[in-house]
Amino acid sequence: MQSLWFGMNCACRNLLNSARICNPEEMSMDGNYLLSKMTWPEVEEILKETDIALVPVGSTEQHGPALPVDNDAFIATEFTHRVAESIWEKQKVVVTPTISFGYSPHHMQFKGTITIRESTLANMIVDVCTSLEQHGFKRIILVNGHGGNSTAISNALHTMNNVVMAKIFSVNWWDLASDKIAEVATRPVFHACDMETSVAWFLGQRVLEDRRVDEAGRKIVEGFVEPDMLAPAPKASVAFMMKYVTESGVVGHSTKATKEKGKQIVEVVLERLQEFILKVARA
Fold first, then answer.
1. Which residues on adjacent β-strands are paired with residue 274?
2. Distances (CA, A) of 264 to 107, 175, 178, 183, 199
3. Tell me: the pLDDT tens digits for 210-250?
4. Which domains does the chain have, with CATH numbers?
5. CA 180, CA 14: separation in Å to the nearest integer?
6. What is the rounded CA–CA span in Å between residue 12 and residue 31?
7. Cα 230 to Cα 185: distance, rounded to the nearest angstrom
8. 3-class secondary structure, 168
9. Which of 102, 118, 159, 275 has the smallest count of CB within 10 Å of its CB?
């Protein structure tokens, strides 16, 4: 996981190198939106200015031979940090530490994957959100970076409904830019693919360029159960192990990935995530 807590000079350099949507003058000094870097009196003070908390949720799982196992957590972290910087002058938010372990049993045949039970993840989310609510955060946004977490997040939201008084929202970052992804990404779009590699690359992730591979993935039931988020066919579902559909851990064309594609997708995600936060602030 990358941290933005390196001081202003390093933060500005990263902003310029990655062409972030905010400029250094508008950035919050020394990343002081980070809950993990605040003292308790500082948390008490920031709560006088905002009651919005962003919680990045990721995973630790294989992403093929070219991307690290922290990729989902890395992307979710980057999006929350960057949007907090870009929105700071309009609306202050606090970003919590990332939940870096997710529900990934289907990746366990690939070394390095660490999975937790869906119930564990759901309970962790409930505990994090109830803690935040107790301190005074009334609007909490879970920014999810791993599709496998969706059921656990949904279960957590149902558990907290009418129990936790804070408004708790969840968003998958890729859903914010589905139109742009369909426009620029090479299909199939599924895992460690052109889209995901491009986004990670632009955000500053370690990418082993010479180890990128193309693997379209096995169609489980053609026309109904296929590893492609953009498949137009009627949808059905089945539980499966990733090793069943891919030997490399990649489903997609990571050799087609470019930082420019990543930039286009990231800009749309950040623009719409910022819009969402501003609307949540008024909700």
1. none
2. 29, 14, 12, 10, 9
3. 999 999 999 999 989 999 999 887 689 999 999 999 999 99
4. 8-282 (3.40.50.10310)
5. 24
6. 11
7. 10
8. strand
9. 275
